[in-house]
Amino acid sequence: MTSVPDWPAVRGLSVAQSLEAKHGRPTLNTASYKGRTALITGANGAYGSRAAKLFARREVDTLLLVDVRDCTGVKEAIEAELKSEGRKVPRILVRKIDMMTFAGCMELAKHLRELDYLDHALLTAGILSFDCKESPDGWETTIQVNFLSSALVALLVLPALKSSPGNPNPPVMTFVTSFGVYPASPTMSVPKHGSYLKRLNNNKPGMAQGHQYGRSKALLLYFTRELAARCSASSVVPKVTINSADPGSAWTPLTSANQGMLIPRLIMNFSARDPDIGAVALVNGVSAPEEGHGQIMQDFETAEYPPFMERKSGQVAQKRVWDETRAELEAKVPEIEGVFKMLEVEGR
């Protein structure tokens, strides 16, 4: 689902390393998901649909496919392929939620009640928009979908995470990240006064909107790291693995907007790889053992958090992101207050 390329120069990678990343071919680390349940948001997307197929081909028991668009086509394609090969077809549930609004996200809560277990939750849903638009909840649409609604979905999923009897590891929830956060990072300084989220939301068309995807992903990375830390420190949250995964760059319907811009197109052409490979990286991320908790998962290793997040200013920003997100969600979605209370930890 990455829409901004990896920007090798920004990441400090050599040409050889960039080509290695492009041609890297991770293989699935889990031989079988027998008896397990997996949830995928953005299941109609290039990565989400491929991840669903990977789970299905490895004996997953139940797939919950969620998107703003009907995922019946994905379901039918998986069923037809497995039947033609004489393989077992999993139970596949197709559900719709609209992440452009908080109310639309809340539809997920009733769908989660259909599940006895939830071993893997892969949150791939997201948008890339070069047009500055406002959501019905009053947020720039990229911030709404990629950050605020993704955070809300994660908080809804968290209490539902429960390993099935045959799964030896804690359940895993994985967010999709992008090294597009690097070129956006210079625009993400924390204001001395006023809301941090509102400052990033107060956007204008042009260059600022071009960085909005990376900004939304940086906000999500802050939120994910704080969520992982709070889950570790909480005495009431059962053991779970929370991480992020970077699928790398790929030409997908989401990234096709980059075709119209010279520099992004050239960089994408240099670094893009088959989305099938990125899907493998994401499924490995959401299948990580508990050692992957709080990590950023890549093809063959974990990655460091961006340097701007490790500085003192980054720690301040992370706390601001969490506190302001909590205030916004509790004001608009009072039902989520109980989950935030579970995550209250002294000293954080």
Give a structural overview.
This protein is α/β, with parallel strands linked by helices and 348 residues long. The protein has one domain: 3-Layer(aba) Sandwich (Rossmann fold). It is built from 16 helices and eight strands. It has helices at residues 8-11, 15-23, 46-57, 72-84, 102-105, 107-112, 141-157, 181-184, 196-201, 207-210, 212-233, 262-271, 275-285, 307-310, 312-332, 337-342, and strands spanning 37-41, 62-67, 91-96, 120-123, 172-176, 241-245, 296-297, 302-303. The protein has an eight-stranded mixed β-sheet, with helices on both faces. Helix 4 (72-84) links the parallel strand 2 (62-67) and strand 3. The radius of gyration is 19 Å and the shape is globular. The two termini are 31 Å apart. Residues 1-22 have low confidence and may be disordered. Keywords: Oxidoreductase. InterPro entries: NAD(P)-bd_dom_sf, SDR_fam. One of its GO terms (molecular function) is oxidoreductase activity. Pfam families: adh_short.
Give structural attributes:
oxidoreductase, eight-stranded mixed β-sheet, oxidoreductase activity, disordered N terminus, Rossmann fold, alpha/beta, 8 strands
